[in-house]
Amino acid sequence: GCGCGRVMAMHRWACSLGRAGGAGMRRHCSSTALAPHLARLRSQPQPLLRRLAALDHIHCEYSQLEDEYLARQRALQVELRTKMAVLFAARQGVVSGEASATAAQIKGSELKPLILESQIEAVDSSNGLPQFWPMAMRQCSALELESGEHVCTSRDWQILDYLKEISVRHWSPPPEDPEQAGLADDEEQEADTEVDDSEELGFALEFRFAPNEFLDHEVPPTLYCYAQGEVSLTCPPVWRQDANPTVVLKRKKVKRKGKPAEIVSSPQPTHSFFRLFNEPSIEDDQASDAAGLVSVSELHEQLVLPIAEELMPNATIYYMRALLESDDNEPTESAAS
Fold first, then answer.
1. pTM for the full predicted model
2. Best exposed site among 90, 108, 184, 206 by fewest CB in 10 Å?
3. Which contiguous run of DSSP H or E holds residue 279?
4. Best CA proximity match to 225, nearest among 180, 261, 274, 277
């Protein structure tokens, strides 16, 4: 992996440190009033209270140090996200064909010796890099399940062939206060241009598709996640009729007394990458266990952070690896033009 993943991992550690550090124990540090629960120590001997006061002061200094560190770490994380977003947008511009490779980019690449001088200043066509994201996903070992099999099935790849962009952007989790939670609506799930200092640094993973016969490309499947990768909300694909790869129809013969046998079809969950966009539930856990599948909650645990921290920053490396491992080294006509 690259440094981006390591920095994001450090951020998750810092977030967990902040949550585990006992905010309630720090409140009295900046207060001149004695907290009620500490007043019960009044009966203790004065020498002991003096030592406790010294330890309490040291603890307060630790809490202040922790707060300062977390504030600096958060500022660095916000800066990192902002700069990463710019780089990812530039990469997607080249991938989609909306932007042409610049001379500065070519001259700063290890691939420069492979490019003719006459081509450095050339203007690219609008074809971009076909199949960039599916090819990168095929090479990303982080998308393998604990069983060792790739999460994507042959049925999934037929759909993923139309995948034109994966993006990761800032998302602010809804407030935990039930009274404030009602204020959140669909519009607030959109990407934020600015990050409030009080907001948790959540993120959204969005998958955009070209028009196809499997799903509605105008409704991009999206995962809304907390900083440590826990999925808070999902926006599942809108499937065309009979195109949902996450279910199969199981047929069985039902016999009723005095009536001829009847064939009944019922949907059953089946292994698919797109189950990642389902909501975890007790019903899913039971159905997955009965079908011998990894549950949706387990899929979230195994795949969300690898997509955000491995596939996203390293997609170019995975794409080039796919080209190197291709049996046919000749560039496709659409990519070469």
1. 0.77
2. 108
3. none
4. 277
What pLDDT, on a 0 to 100 scale, did the predictor assign at position 327? 57
* Amino acid making up residue 319: Y
Contact 127, 337 (CB under 8 A): yes
Instruction: Find the radius of gyration of the CA atoms of the chain.
Output: 26
313: tokens are 């920053």
Q: How many CB atoms are located within 10 Å of the residue 58 CB?
A: 10
How far is residue 75 CA from its own chain's centroid?
20
CB 120 within 8 A of CB 106: yes
By three-state DSSP, how is residue 1 classified? coil
Alpha carbons 75 and 152: distance in angstroms, whole number: 36
**36-81 pLDDT tens trace:** 888 888 889 999 999 999 999 999 999 999 999 999 999 998 999 9
CA-to-CA dists, residue 201 to 48, 66, 162, 229, 234, angstroms: 42, 18, 30, 11, 17
- pLDDT of 1 reads 45
Which pLDDT score is estimated for 90?
Answer: 96
Residue 304 tokens read as 């969300």
200 contacts: CB under 8 Å, gap ≥ 6: 15, 172, 173, 226, 227
Residues contacting residue 210 through CB under 8 Å, at least 6 positions apart: 162, 163, 164, 217
pLDDT tier at 229 (50, 70, 90 boundaries)?
Answer: very high
Cα Dmax for the chain: 91
Q: Tokens for 207, please give them.
A: 């998958």
10, 227 contact by CB (below 8 A)? no
Can you give the length of the chain in residues? Answer: 337
Using alpha carbons, list the distances in angstroms from residue 329 to 74, 321, 335.
Answer: 45, 12, 12
Which residue bears the tokens 């998302």?
171
**Euclidean distance between CA atoms 289 and 1, whole angstroms:** 33
pLDDT tens per residue across span 318-333: 999 999 998 555 555 4
List 267's β-bridge partners, or say none: 249
Q: What angle do CA 313, 72, 304 make, to 5 degrees?
A: 30
